[in-house]
Each structure stands twice: as structure tokens, then as C-alpha cells.
């Protein structure tokens, strides 16, 4: 039986793991112990490395069979004696680093056909400029004047529009389309991504809705990752921009003229309306929505399913529908619960009075 889609890693010692991740081996006599892979607490075997990042999983840690475990210093005593402790300030980060070390092919989409170079089945305009080591798979279409940097993958069925510029070491997934766009280095666009199509803009009128021409671009900086079936509209009269290091989940909608800062995290099914401006290191939970022209400050956190209707100052956390600052949201919830309990109490008292009357 095929064990999986990624090659089995070469076993390495715990000493090598300490070098790769920066963790400290609690028992120096175990530095030469070999491990073969990684696994979660409940599935790890005697050749695997696992991690604990939440004390609520202490029972799972107690029962793990793992050879070693990344763990914070405060939780070291929770580990079973059979498991070597790898002390680190950030167990989940160390585990992610090790997983990438073991399975480097998982860090970036690979060619569907498994071949490098330009496929005879690709459709590439004569004026396209390709640097060395570009892979263009069968069924991909690259329009006139496009430029693609070295080491970039254009997967099967992808469409690259006329004049689009794509940097180096990028991965454009199967069926993705990029038009009216300038793309930086090491950008990943997963299958079905749509970048640069018309934004949604119309002037309403009694005789019909007049389309507003969308003449801007999409500019995506280095190290951005875009999840499957996410859509990023081009600007109407200015550019839509995604800052470096930002990571966007699947099925996110980003409207025209939106500016997103650096190193933001945007979870699935978020909707960002036109002309929103977001700062750096913003985190948005799944299903949240942001209305047009809102300004979201640096370091803001927006809870899942929140509806943001007004500007959010730097560093604040907002939740609710409509969204408000988190302390205010909790006060609202507590007040609502008291009102509900009061109504229930009055309802029960009224029922007893009616029983007594009868």
C-alpha cells in the first residue's frame, strides 16, 4: 500500500533536531536517539516526534508513545518518562520547522505532471519572457508580454494574462488565473485562485446600472500565499495591494482598491469590501466581513463571523454583529444573558401565579 503522497524522510538524531529547531534536549544522554517522522500526540509512535502547545491536551500527552515531544518549559513535568523532552518557547513553531525539514516538498505545490520545463502542450505567446528553470505545464496559457521569473511553476490549466509580471520561485496552481497583476517573489497561488478580474462597481440608475470601468491593477508583494478559490479584484481607479508575507485562506473575497498590509492572516470565507485599508499583522477569523472604506489598524484581531462597519484602531480586538471592541462585546453578552434570565424568571413566576389562581 502507498504510505502517502510525500517521500519518507531520512531518520535523524535528536541532536540534529535541536540544531534545526533551536530546542534544548532535556536529557543529554538521548542526543543520538534516531527519529523517523512526526505525528500528533495520539498517533505518534516510538520513532516519532510530537508536540504539546495546550495544557488541555495533557491527558493525550500522558498517553503518547512518541520518542520525543516539543514542549514549553512550564509543562515539562507533564511528559511521560518514556518520551524525551525537547524544551522550546514555541512548541508549535518548532514542530512546523521540523515537519518542513522532514517533508520539504510539502512547503510548496509541486508540478502536477512531475516534469520540469515548458510542456509542448502549453500555449505561450511569442513575446513572453521566461527566465531559467521556469516550469509551464500542459494546458497553461501565458499571454503576450508576460514575464515569469526563474524557478516559478505555472501549473496545468493556469492562465497568465497579457503583461502580467511574476517573480521568482512562485507557484501558480492548477486552474488559477492571474490578469492585470504584478506578482512578487515566492508567491503561492493555490488551485482556482482568481486575481485581477473586474471589481464590483456600478452606478445605480432608474434606467439600469452603469458599470464603473475597473482600470487598476493587483500588486502582490513577496512571500504571499493565497488559498484555493480565493478572489482578488483589481482596482477601479487605484491598485489593489497585498503586503509581503500575508497569508490568505481558501474562499476569501477581496474587493477592488483594497490595501492589505504586511504579514496579515486572513481565514476562510472572509469578505473584504472595496477600498478597505488594513495595517500590518492583522488577523481576521473565518467568515468575518468588513464593509467598504473601513480602516483597520496595525495588529488588529477580528473574531470569526464579525461584521466590521467602522474603523478599528491599532492593536484592538473586535467581535460581534455589528463588531465592537471585545470588552464592550462581552459586556453586551452579559447584559443580554441577564435580560434573558430575568424574562425566564418572570415567565416562571407568572406560570406559578396562574397555577395558584386555578
Automatic annotation (TrEMBL):
The organism of origin for this protein: Bauldia litoralis
Gene Ontology BP terms: lipid A biosynthetic process
The name this protein goes by in its record: UDP-3-O-acylglucosamine N-acyltransferase
UDP-3-O-[3-hydroxymyristoyl] glucosamine N-acyltransferase non-repeat region domain mapped to chain residues: 32-98
GO MF term set: N-acyltransferase activity; UDP-3-O-[(3R)-3-hydroxyacyl]-glucosamine N-acyltransferase activity
Family (UniProt): Belongs to the transferase hexapeptide repeat family. LpxD subfamily.
Complex formation: Homotrimer.
EC number: 2.3.1.191
Pathway: Bacterial outer membrane biogenesis; LPS lipid A biosynthesis
Reaction(s) the record says it catalyses: a UDP-3-O-[(3R)-3-hydroxyacyl]-alpha-D-glucosamine + a (3R)-hydroxyacyl-[ACP] = a UDP-2-N,3-O-bis[(3R)-3-hydroxyacyl]-alpha-D-glucosamine + holo-[ACP] + H(+)
Enzyme type, top EC level: transferase
Matches recorded under HAMAP family: LpxD (MF_00523)
InterPro entries for the chain: Hexapep, Hexapep_transf_CS, LpxD, Trimer_LpxA-like_sf, UDP_GlcNAc_AcTrfase_non-rep
